[in-house]
Amino acid sequence: MASLGNGLYMTGGAVYFVRKVGLSPGQVGLGLSIAGVLALPIGVPVGYLADRFGPRGTTAVLALGKALMLTLAAFVHSFATYVVVAAVLGVAENTGHVARGALVAGVMGRDGRVRLSAYMRSVFNGGFALASLAAGIVIAVDSTGAYRGLFFGNAAAMVTVSALYMRLPRVPGVRPEGRERSGLGALHDVPYVLVAQVAGLARIGPTIVAVGIPVWLVTHTSAPRPLAAWLTLINTLIVVFLQVRAARGADTVPGASRLQRWTFMVIAGACVITGFSRGVPGWSAGLILAAAVVLFTFGEIWGEAARWGLRYELAPGKLQGQYGAAFAIGDAVALIVGPTLVTAVPDRLGLAGWLLLTALFLAALALSRPAVQWAVRTRPVAPDTP
């Protein structure tokens, strides 16, 4: 249900703010960027609250906060009000992921948390795709009432989701001790933060598929332009049908570490393949890009599975909230720099730009295993060595 609401908002909301509110596409993008930047540091205290008072209630409250901001979004009338609403909405959305991760860990335990995360991501992508198609109808109607109905429907979905969260088993809160009492203890765990930074680099891969390849296709190749949308569909279908299978073995540190290395290898290879699509005629270029997208997507599903395993297994069992928030800070490079990196560098340098991206992922590959091993050595109760 949440994925349906998100798909409707992300696809139709941006069009509403441009068509009916009068914002420029740049202003819409700026609001989303501000939301992403704010969510990273705010996630840490929210994670602390999830640990202290229990993740179930924290997650439910954040869903209600999102419902409120979606309702207010329907009445945005200026760039200033849009920035405020988009920022608060983005913070509620992204910190909600942190609290929900702690809830999954508390409800499912070690044996089921990675597998459930994989199921959730698979279902989310399927729902998001269906909602995007439905949003296309709203965009075709192109009336203020239809767009506002989209916001209100999403808000109602969030209220329902909040109620469903409260039907889950209660996960008791804990009183942190020592350094963790400040809510910043996870940020002092340097090996854990380093693992998070390395894992976050893998999330540049999905940004390449969503932004980098479509821009590259239409500006630097002779591939048919509609293929830009069809390649995204290939990505979605692979995630929906293979994410659960890809997560097998990721519930241990050695398994997750191995998947992360596979992730960086295939993403690096996909970057090289993408670069060679330039100068190739028509559908041949399209086939090259399709092969690259398949590789990028396998890197994505392996990378997400590895991320769950490392995020959960290397964190103290009772501090999954604040440690999950610290892990999310590792997304900073992908979130802030990623869109510019995957568009501007190949655009200016061509094949050399894709080779520079390849070098970035090979560097991440080189760091991956040592970072995880360091984190394992510094755990009070060390997991298995990767």
TrEMBL record:
<feature type="transmembrane region" description="Helical">
    <location>
        <begin position="123"/>
        <end position="141"/>
    </location>
</feature>
<feature type="transmembrane region" description="Helical">
    <location>
        <begin position="147"/>
        <end position="168"/>
    </location>
</feature>
<feature type="transmembrane region" description="Helical">
    <location>
        <begin position="28"/>
        <end position="48"/>
    </location>
</feature>
<dbReference type="InterPro" id="IPR036259">
    <property type="entry name" value="MFS_trans_sf"/>
</dbReference>
<protein>
    <submittedName>
        <fullName>MFS transporter</fullName>
    </submittedName>
</protein>
<dbReference type="InterPro" id="IPR011701">
    <property type="entry name" value="MFS"/>
</dbReference>
<keyword id="KW-0472">Membrane</keyword>
<feature type="transmembrane region" description="Helical">
    <location>
        <begin position="227"/>
        <end position="247"/>
    </location>
</feature>
<keyword id="KW-0813">Transport</keyword>
<dbReference type="InterPro" id="IPR050171">
    <property type="entry name" value="MFS_Transporters"/>
</dbReference>
<feature type="transmembrane region" description="Helical">
    <location>
        <begin position="68"/>
        <end position="92"/>
    </location>
</feature>
<keyword id="KW-0812">Transmembrane</keyword>
<keyword id="KW-1133">Transmembrane helix</keyword>
<feature type="transmembrane region" description="Helical">
    <location>
        <begin position="259"/>
        <end position="277"/>
    </location>
</feature>
<feature type="transmembrane region" description="Helical">
    <location>
        <begin position="283"/>
        <end position="302"/>
    </location>
</feature>
<feature type="transmembrane region" description="Helical">
    <location>
        <begin position="323"/>
        <end position="345"/>
    </location>
</feature>
<feature type="transmembrane region" description="Helical">
    <location>
        <begin position="189"/>
        <end position="215"/>
    </location>
</feature>
<dbReference type="Pfam" id="PF07690">
    <property type="entry name" value="MFS_1"/>
</dbReference>
<feature type="transmembrane region" description="Helical">
    <location>
        <begin position="351"/>
        <end position="368"/>
    </location>
</feature>
<keyword id="KW-1003">Cell membrane</keyword>
